[in-house]
Amino acid sequence: MRKPIIVANWKMYKTRVEAEQFCEEIRPLLAGQDKVDAAICAPALQLDILKAKLQNTGIGVGAQNMYPAAEGAFTGEISPRMLQDMGIDYVIIGHSERREIFKEDNELIKAKVKSAYEYGLCPILCVGERLEQREAGETVEVCAGQLLSALEDLTAEEVEQMIVAYEPIWAIGTGKVATAQDAEDTIKALRQAIADKYGAATAEKVRIQYGGSVKPENVKELMAQPNIDGALVGGASLKPESFAKLVRYQEA
Questions:
Q1: Nearest residue to 166 (alpha-carbon basis) of 205, 124, 134, 195
Q2: Which end is more exposed in the chain, N or C (fewer Cβ atoms within 10 Å of the end residue's Cβ)?
Q3: In this predicted structure, what is the pLDDT of residue 69?
């Protein structure tokens, strides 16, 4: 059975002082919680604080991006080797903001995913469609295309360990959210795409999240769907009380 995983994506928020305060407040709120995996993906400048302050809490720490090369003349970038050296657990790859704003294409994202595994990082691979693609009935085609491109060079064992996050672009930070059934239908199709390439046994082990305006008020309905294994959460993860409610959704 797949263990649910709730991941905070802080995006470009929080100073170091604010990150430290969040950690102090979240520790007691999630103490003893072991039914759901939890992780926080923070700006690179805050990762050392999270690693220090969240030790022995069971809360994982993730980066929001990385460059695929281990080192080199890539000014402003962060490498998987650096993240490995810090003991980072996860790295978000292919978020729509990286694809849309920074023009990252499928080839770069594929290289990042492969490199993450080489340095012991668990990739959280994001896929999602624009509103016009959804309205044209292209959701599954677009999302499965992004997914299968990123999986191209991976073994079945690597695929089993990864996390996929379905994030419809039109629902990120907009207040709009796909219905639980819409999210389930797309995620079920993504799981089938994995099964077609790697077999049903592998597909059944992959954890697939939903992301896009997830909040304490709607997380339980989303998590009740058989193929939704978690959430990648933006704005609602910035306050300790809200993030704790998301992780403890089964207790609500």
A1: 124
A2: N
A3: 98
Q: What is the CA radius of gyration of the chain?
A: 17
95 is catalytic: yes
Mean pLDDT of 214-224: 97
Number of domains in the chain: 1
Give the range of the structural domain holding residue 96, as residue numbers without chain letter: 5-251
Task: Output the six-digit token pair for 43.
Answer: 């700006």
User: Which SS3 state, helix, strand or coil, does residue 9 take?
Assistant: strand
- Ramachandran category for residue 199: left, alpha or beta (phi over 0 → left; psi -120 to 50 → alpha): left
Encoded amino acid at 157, one letter:
E
Q: Is 167 a catalytic residue?
A: yes
Structure tokens at 199: 């077999």
Helix (H), strand (E) at residue 211: strand 207-211
CATH code where residue 219 lies = 3.20.20.70
> Amino acid identity, residue 57?
T
- One-letter amino acid at 224 equals A
pLDDT single digits (tens) 127-136:
999 999 999 9
Whole-structure pTM over 0.85, yes or no? yes
- Of 71, 95, 100, 217, which residue is the catalytic one? 95
Q: Which of 97, 104, 129, 167 is catalytic?
A: 167
- Give the integer Cα–Cα distance in Å for 232 and 93: 12
pLDDT of 170 reads 86
